[in-house]
User: Fold these one by one.
Assistant:
Number 1:
Amino acid sequence: MLAILAAVLFLIALIFQLAVIGFGPLTATLLITAGLLCVALHLAGVGSRTWGR
């Protein structure tokens, strides 16, 4: 689930970069950082179904 969220964040960041837009504090850099955080959590096993067994 976190990997899908990261992919969506990266897609939105790409659109922001290509269109050269930003909404106040919501910039492409912020979205890329949030996407990388989601990827790191996914690789660490957070949110997986078998993690708590």
Note: The helical segments are 2-19, 28-44.
Number 2:
Amino acid sequence: MTLLQHNPNRRDSSASLERLGGLVIVQNRETQFDAPLYRVIASSAPYPLRVIYTSALNAADAELGFAPRWDHLAAGSYDQWVLQGQSPLQAWRLARWICSLQPDLVIVAGYYPRFQLLLALFLRLLGVRIGLRSDNTLSHTILKGWRGWLRRQAVGRIQRFFHSWHPVGNQALAYLRALSGTNRPSYRFAYAVDNDWFASRSAVERSGRAQWLADCGWPADAFVVLGIMKWTVREDPLTLVRAFADLQRHCPRARLLLVGDGPLQVQVQQAIAPFAPLVHCPGFVAYSSLPQWYGYADVFVHPCPDEPWGVSVNEAMACGLPVLAAAGVGAGEELIEPGCNGLRFDNGDALSLASQLQQLADQPERLRAMGTAARQTVATWSYEVSMAQLQQALLGAPCSVS
């Protein structure tokens, strides 16, 4: 185990949490949305936080083949550790080290890699209070046949093994309850983003939208459809491209801003070739520049048919954009109120998506109202809410996740 940086947390001696030994979070690797949350906790929470990563930082993304450019993460902004090796002996040593810290709670983010499950077992044997963070959902899990039966039996037992659950949303909580056949104290540990950062940065970028449209040779009243995704079969950028092709025939001022890259690059470029001047593809961009593209857009589309959550939905809503999401996007199920802050469409249904986009293009007042509602919705999925839930869990307070 290698210590990357030690950043002691500030303590508030007047807080009841002063008695706490602190929080330890174990997860596979650093994420672009959790790391800023951990930075906020490290700088303001009245209890110590330690985050242990079981895989190397800055590892290549399996779908993209390269490491994402998360240039917004400040090294050493919270107490983070990276594990070297994943042997059973290492799991036992790590469990004993964690036990020596006398934490009030250890949250393990899933049971993959299997090392994390073994670590949870050792922690439980050592008498440490453990919680499970989960993003699995019933709609994204195959539970039919004998394999499904085995999954239910095995996974259910694993879920019952933890003292508390920390689902990312209501769908994840339903999954935990269904497979375990029981219940545990549950505290939402959402996949949230820095709402304020996205809102403020995108607002600044929006002031430059007119010039950007002019630089692209696009009309000042362009209806800009935004997609930010990996160009993979799982995230399905081609459905968005096909929907845009249909939309543009009925709405000549429509334009497509398609951010991303991936294995489907050739297919995507071939699909947009007939109307290439109407599409802008900046490639896979650094995280710090994402607000720029949200700021230039009128509406955001997430067409992925198999996405248990999808934090880009949070990002877009924080930037005040209505969101159109495929049925397979978990965040769409939980954050979108159809007709209020966005719309949903069947997986792969380009014609339905095109029709929904046309409706919004024809109703600018409705579009703006939905954007305002989107920002209000995502405010309830903020870092502040996540921190409050973690504090409740540390204190063993009654949970507020129903």
Note: The first helix runs from residue 34 to 44.
Number 3:
Amino acid sequence: MHEGAESLSIAAPAKINLFLDVLGKRPDGYHDLRSLVVPVSLVDELKVEKTDGVIEAVCDGSELPEGHAGLVPGSADNLAVRAAQRLREATGHRGGVRIHIHKRIPVGGGMGGGSADAAAALVGVNALWGTGLAPADLMVLGAELGSDIPALVRGGAVCMEGRGERVTPIACRWPAGTEWWLLLVNPGFSVPTADVYRRFRTGLTSPDETFTNARFALERGAVTLAAASLHNALERVVFVKYPLLRVVAERLKAAGALGVLLSGSGASIFALAADRRHAEQMENEIGCDAGCPLWTRVAQVLPDGVMAAHGPLEARA
């Protein structure tokens, strides 16, 4: 489909975790997880173009929270670059690629920004180079680079297990016209994921009923049930170290959110809303009441991963 194309564009949506349980530590040092992951309409935009051999990234961070542009890894350490390098190693392709990334997803924000870019790079560069790897193969490569990447390569709503390598798509059969709106809030600083897991101590996991209800709500588009079933085992650890995040969560609840949860290991928090207007009202309230600058975005859940006329991981010339 893209044979002969010199460049392709691809959207990399952020993700939130509606449910995240940490089941224990593995022999390899990682943790076993069980999580319900869904993409949202906040996206990084990538353009990949062929080069003679160099693999590099160029980033525009002008839409990131204040101070975040300086947190974007340089080309050599960028996860999208590492993904393209791994794809070249796996396929023996001899060409290169320049990856232009227009960043919108906060860095170190628990919404999969770097992982989303890496997933998009795997899909986009695979199409650009014509290397022909199947999505399942790209997910295996992604798992070598980061726990969230396989789920984001797969796209849409998924259940992620193990250290992220086991991904099961969730069939979302939402009634016509069903929409989930939410407010994304970031305090302007990042939270190192590795530090959160070092501080985490495995305790009681959530009841299976909570997971079952959360999954059912996602399958059926029942936002009220989803809001009542939100769970993140890392939230307590993060709130202890970063008390501002607890304050933000409490203010979102006071503003009438259906449900509020830390996404991933933070620092971003999301608040489920009754509709778009409700999300915008919460944005106004939290902005006036915060007492410090907060980055906020009204967004929509994308249960099937579809944005506009293109899937977010559909590379297009």
Note: The domain at 7-169 is CATH 3.30.230.10 (Ribosomal Protein S5; domain 2).
